[in-house]
Recover the amino acids of this structure.
């Protein structure tokens, strides 16, 4: 296993000071996959986007984390990654008739290892994004190629990102999971065995976790579970990398290495991913 070291790039910091994108709000209700839920999301569109050509996609779970819009903008301006549209999804919630939240649906959506979340992304979120018409008339045109699509998540979002790509490698080809909950909450501990027994899929995967991540007597060690999954991916021959560092269940390290992970993910764009 290699350990990724984050290198601060002065030019990237300078570029981030001149943001060249706009963020638009979106809302989904009346889901057929998660009945009764409402989901909010944001679409980040580069100012250079013309609306005439399909562009790569980045999906971030739990909304905007890791200063992703600014960093994607900076890295794109430097030519380190391609320009892309990014979508930041919040997990669903259920509200009463007065609009008060009565239940959060995050674990049901993110920790489950069946295909519902990938189906939700395919049939509800991404069509809503693609049907968006911006105030200036530009339309959202997303590349359908899995090698042009990346998904990121932290904690329960980390396993959700991995599972979405695992269930639908035709939908997402690139995965960044930070502090993923690959433990026996809703079947996450089974993934390492499935990965070992399954023919390798055309996925590029980065796992990050801290030595002192969560442990409890019911679910065990988050860090250990991430290491076991990484071992399974390495055994199966995946294009993957990891970062194990000091720290607990936190976005701090996940965010610190975000620019380097993005460059690693998109290093040979637009080449297709190989098994």
């Amino acid at each position: 296993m290699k350990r990724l070291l984050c290198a601060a790039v002065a030019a990237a910091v300078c570029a981030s000071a001149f943001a060249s994108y706009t963020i638009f709000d979106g809302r989904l209700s009346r889901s057929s996959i998660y009945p009764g839920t409402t989901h909010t999301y944001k679409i980040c569109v580069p100012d250079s986007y013309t609306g005439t050509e399909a562009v790569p996609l980045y999906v971030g779970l739990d909304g905007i984390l890791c200063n992703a819009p600014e960093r994607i903008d900076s890295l794109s301006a430097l030519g380190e990654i391609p320009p892309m549209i990014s979508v930041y999804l919040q997990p669903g919630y259920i509200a009463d008739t007065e609009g008060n939240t009565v239940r959060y649906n995050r674990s049901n959506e993110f920790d489950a290892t069946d295909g519902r979340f990938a189906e939700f992304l395919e049939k509800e979120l991404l069509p809503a994004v693609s049907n968006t018409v911006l105030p200036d008339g530009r339309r959202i045109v997303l590349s359908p190629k899995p090698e042009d699509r990346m998904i990121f998540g932290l904690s329960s979002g980390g396993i959700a990102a991995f599972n979405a790509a695992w269930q639908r490698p035709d939908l997402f080809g690139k995965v960044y999971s930070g502090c993923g909950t690959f433990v026996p909450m809703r079947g996450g501990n089974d993934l390492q065995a499935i990965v070992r027994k399954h023919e390798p899929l055309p996925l590029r995967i980065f796992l990050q976790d801290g030595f002192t991540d969560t442990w409890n007597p019911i679910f065990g060690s988050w860090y250990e579970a991430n290491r076991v999954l990484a071992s399974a991916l390495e055994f199966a021959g995946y294009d993957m990398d990891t970062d194990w560092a000091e720290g607990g269940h936190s976005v701090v390290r996940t965010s610190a290495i975000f620019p380097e992970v993005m460059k690693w993910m998109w290093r040979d764009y637009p080449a297709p991913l190989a098994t």
